[in-house]
Amino acid sequence: MFHILFVCTHNRCRSILCEAITDAHAKGALKVSSAGSHPAGAIYPETLRQLAQHGYSIEGLQSTGWEVLEQSPPNLVVTVCDSAAGEACPLWLGDAQKLHWPLTDPSKLSDPELAGVAFSEVIAKIEAQVPKWLAMAQKA
Fold this sequence. Notes:
The chain is an alpha/beta fold.
């Protein structure tokens, strides 16, 4: 099964959003994971609240490092933050296709109203991208 790994440095917001939304829309057609190069160990609480508010399951989501996926390497690694895009990937990711898809980080906004709008915009952008991920997986 085609495996997509979404990577963000801390794996606490954008990569988690990508994992939850892509997994929900793929309905088992893809294996979807997220990880961080330097994981925070906890998901930003507003990320979970926004996912639930938009109707996505938050069950099983966790902030992890990419080393937990070494035994199940991805076919595609998608970095969603600029700092993760510039980091060296572990050797076991060598055969995976790599793609940088920068997303705005709504967790950086202190104004709750602006953050809510930013979360909605990022969620909509991810939702619009899922059919493209599915098409890419079918071609592989």
